[in-house]
Write a structure and sequence with these properties.
Transferase Inhibitor Protein From Tn5, Chain A, domain2; 33% helix; 11 strands; 11-stranded mixed sheet; 3 domains; alpha+beta; globular; disordered C terminus; 12 helices; Transposase Inhibitor Protein From Tn5, Chain A, domain 1
Length: 444
């Protein structure tokens, strides 16, 4: 699936017997999502050794309501009526270089019961929100060799039990505040942040989000400080401390720079030290990397792998398929994050026999001018990403918008077809001893 760039069984299988084998694999009870993801996490852990890793986690639903008539064994999704499943991956990104290192892991589950009346009183271990702790724990388990881990997530991860249990000196948390928590200093968190002085003004680019917002330059004002939050009344852990001291970074967009869009306002909480403006800006920049996991979900769905159109008919098989599909989407993200100058070798994302195929394709994708030549060192991942982007339809000019995940996905699909043709040509080429003098052989 990774090498072919698709999760559609009918496209992967070359004959009926292969299609049957794929189907048997997906319904085999001995094939577990946990083992698939543990193997994936181990590979990523090897790439992460010695690095500061941003472990970015989030949740998305896969909706199969269009196939509800023939699909069985699924749960409900967010609206409470459509059928589907939930996916919660943890994506590893190098904090310094921006390289995508791979998946740390992923949880997948079916929601088969409604929300209990006493949900708030239940322990965290009995709630779906445990996934935020489990995702961070999978990072701890697989990234032991990393120099440091920063777990990044959006507002749903703002859970007191997570702040209390997870940070350990090797792992820090960074999350957007979800709750206006009571603070020991008196009053509540949001009001305390409003009282902080503005210490800096700066700007950054906000990427376009199709159907929601256009790309723009956001003018921001920055505040930061220290807050001590009280243990909430509904905290399910009796051993949790009565209070926790965290660092807060408040970054707000000046309204007139947002145009018709809603201005950005992020209240970020972290266990990292934040004593200077440079450290506060670093926290904001790390949080902005959360966009990569949104792009991962986009690649999984309609514009990319279109996993929600799968013909697989059981919930258990669809869970296994999603565990494989998220690895395919991650390869696209490796290409996207490599485009800006990754010093990783191409072998991190390609098979050894694919490197000469990339080299052979390069001259066919370069233009006549220097601006349309691949400027990167042959054999590097950024060199390979340039070739894949060109195959996906990018025009090659650095002055244009950089290639995104869908362009990379289309390029990888086209490369898979060309690579298969190359391999077939090598298999069918007559041995040198059988060639007659003067006979020209086309090898593709």
């Amino acid at each position: 699936m990774v090498s072919e760039g698709t999760v559609r069984i009918r496209q992967l299988a070359r004959r009926r017997s292969e299609r049957v084998k794929f189907g048997r694999f997906l319904v085999n009870k001995k094939v577990t999502v946990d083992e698939i993801m543990d193997r994936c996490g181990a590979r990523t852990g090897a790439q992460a050794a010695g690095r500061h890793v941003l472990a970015i986690q989030d949740t998305s639903e896969l909706n199969y309501q269009k196939h509800a008539g023939r699909t069985r064994g699924l749960g409900t999704v967010g609206n409470g009526s459509d059928v589907g499943l939930f996916l919660h991956p943890v994506l590893a990104v190098d904090a310094d270089s921006g390289d995508c290192l791979g998946l740390v892991g992923a949880e997948l589950w079916l929601r088969t019961e409604g929300k209990a009346a006493d949900y708030r009183a239940k322990p965290i271990e009995a709630k779906e929100s445990l996934r935020w702790l489990s995702g961070a724990e999978s990072a701890q388990r697989h990234l032991r060799g990393a120099a440091h881990i920063t777990v990044i997530a959006d507002r749903e991860s703002d859970i007191f039990e997570a702040w209390a249990r997870l940070p350990d000196g090797h792992l820090d948390l960074l999350s957007r505040a979800c709750r206006d928590r009571a603070v020991v200093q008196g009053g509540y968190l949001y009001a305390a942040l409003d009282k902080l002085p503005v210490v800096h003004h700066y700007a950054f680019d906000v990427p376009a989000q199709p159907g929601k917002r256009a790309k723009r330059c956001a003018n921001m004002e920055l505040r930061f400080g220290q807050v001590t939050i009280k243990r909430p009344r509904h905290c399910s852990d009796p051993d949790a401390p009565l209070s926790l001291t965290l660092r807060a970074v408040d970054v707000r967009e000046i309204a007139n720079s947002a145009g018709e869009d809603e201005p950005i306002h992020w209240r970020l909480l972290t266990t990292h030290p934040v004593d200077t403006i440079a450290q506060a800006i670093q926290i904001v920049d790390w949080y902005r990397q959360r966009w990569h996991i949104e792009q991962l979900f986009r690649t999984l769905k309609r514009q990319g792998l279109d996993i929600e159109a799968s013909q697989v008919e059981t919930g258990a098989a669809l869970l296994r398929l999603a565990a494989l599909a998220v690895q395919v989407a991650t390869r696209c993200m490796q290409m996207v994050l490599a485009r800006d100058g990754s010093d990783q070798p191409a072998i991190r994302a390609f098979q050894p026999d694919e490197i000469p195929i990339l080299a052979a394709l390069q001259p066919t994708l370069e233009g006549k001018t220097e601006k349309q030549h691949n400027p990167h060192s042959q054999g590097s991942l950024v060199w390979a990403a340039w070739i894949i982007a060109r195959l996906g339809g990018w025009n090659g000019y650095r002055s244009e918008s950089p290639p995104g995940p869908i362009t990379m996905y289309n390029g990888l699909r086209r490369f898979a077809t060309l690579a298969e043709g190359w391999r077939l040509a090598q298999l069918t080429q007559p041995p040198p001893s059988s060639l007659k003098p003067g006979l020209l052989v086309c090898t593709g």
